[in-house]
Specification:
By secondary structure, this protein is an all-alpha fold. The chain has one domain. The protein contains 15 helices and 2 strands. It has a two-stranded antiparallel sheet. A hairpin with a 7-residue loop joins strand 1 and strand 2. Helix 4 runs antiparallel to helix 11 and helix 5 packs parallel to helix 11. The longest helix is centred in the first third of the chain and has 29 residues.
Length: 374
């Protein structure tokens, strides 16, 4: 909204300096700072309200016993993150851009699903919160809308999408692409559902998920910017998608909001994100990769989330297999997701989180390298 205001004032009155607001890089920086300040402003007030109403996390059976001390810590802190992202995004991004509109839809829709889950779990005291299949229905619906818009109405989003609507690029290869064809929409549904749940699984240690999200979104900000820049996309031999540059502003808002929330969520956490934040942030990351045709980069870019998810799948699969074969379930890890495995090995929580950050940064560098080493 401020984008249009300053553009109008610049055009009408030619105010010195207002021309800077047309540049994505300037607005991305402004969005990051705005989101950070909103998180700092809203955070303490919301945490106080959550404490007053005793909206706290219950002890988790699937976590190590050391987590019992975390019981009662305010949750639903994802409201801090989402409010910061939405306000900063609406203020600084071009809201007439269909890419921005789609990502706003993903944020609101999955944020609502996560909020309902937290509300039922924490306020209504239903142990399982929103029943799993209903949560999946919400995620599938979001994937269907995003995939359907790109596949059936690409011209409404970006004329450049028409000929590559169901295609994707392949990391490390210049001219190699892959067309999902009629499977495109199911693939999009799978990606958004998987990433949404993956970030949710990662959100088990103080600062782990939100810090990793910040790193991933900083990387996505660079990728969306070059994808929407004709010269850079031609140089890097990736599809030029006019308008995706505006997603860089949104990515900057996410990174700013994430760093602001990390101030309160770092060890020992004053507030937890809850499903309100984790489901939405995971879905955003998946949707971003879909929009910029980098679906196959997700395993690298979101390697930490993938590792967490695979550890749960491997643990459960092996446990069921051994129970059926030997009559007694056996485990690959001491506990899943894998961050709990390291806790039970004796690693301190801050050390685990820091080392996961290091892995995320290394994967960020590798993801960016794939655009040049092709």
């Amino acid at each position: 909204m401020l984008f249009y205001l300053f553009m109008y004032l610049d055009k009408k009155y030619h105010i010195p300096g207002f021309g800077a607001f047309q540049y994505i890089t300037f607005r991305a920086g402004a969005a990051a700072v705005t989101a950070l300040l909103i998180a700092f402003l809203v955070g303490p007030k919301l945490i106080k309200k959550l404490k007053q109403h005793q909206i706290g996390e219950s002890a988790k059976l699937e976590a190590p016993k050391t987590h019992l001390s975390k019981a009662g810590t305010p949750t639903m802190g994802g409201l801090i993150v989402l409010s910061s992202i939405l306000v900063a995004g609406l203020l600084w991004a071009d809201i007439k851009n269909m890419y921005v509109d789609l990502i706003l839809f993903v944020t609101l829709a999955l944020g609502s699903v996560g909020f309902l889950d937290d509300y039922l779990k924490v306020i209504k005291k239903k142990p399982k919160g929103l029943i799993g299949r209903y949560k999946i229905v919400g995620q599938v619906f979001v994937g269907l809308v995003v995939g359907g818009m790109i596949y059936w109405f690409p011209d409404l989003i970006d004329p450049g999408l028409v000929h590559i609507k169901s295609s994707t690029t392949v990391p490390f290869f210049k001219h190699l692409g892959f067309d999902f064809g009629v499977f495109y929409i199911p693939i999009v549904i799978f990606i958004i559902t998987a990433t949404s749940n993956a970030v949710n699984l990662t959100d088990g240690l103080d600062g782990l998920a939100i810090g990793t999200v910040a790193i991933v979104c900083m990387t996505l900000g660079v990728i969306t910017y070059v994808s929407g820049n004709a010269k850079w996309s031609e140089y890097l031999l990736i599809p030029f998608l006019k308008g995706t540059g505006e997603l860089a502003v949104y990515c900057a808002a996410i990174s700013g909001a994430a760093l602001g929330f990390l101030w309160f969520n770092s060890y020992p956490a004053q507030v937890f994100m809850g499903d309100t934040g984790s489901l939405a942030l995971g879905g955003i990351i998946g949707a971003m990769c879909v929009m910029i045709k980098q679906e196959l980069l997700l395993p690298t870019l979101g390697g930490v989330f993938l590792m967490e998810t695979l550890s749960v799948i491997i643990q459960r699969t092996y446990f069921k297999y051994t129970k059926k074969k030997y009559g007694e379930g056996r485990r690959v890890f001491k506990m899943a997701p894998i961050h709990h495995h390291f806790e039970l090995l004796g690693w301190q929580e801050p050390k685990i989180v820091t080392r996961f950050y290091i892995v995320a940064i290394l994967l960020m560098i590798l993801s960016l390298v794939t655009f040049k080493v092709r």
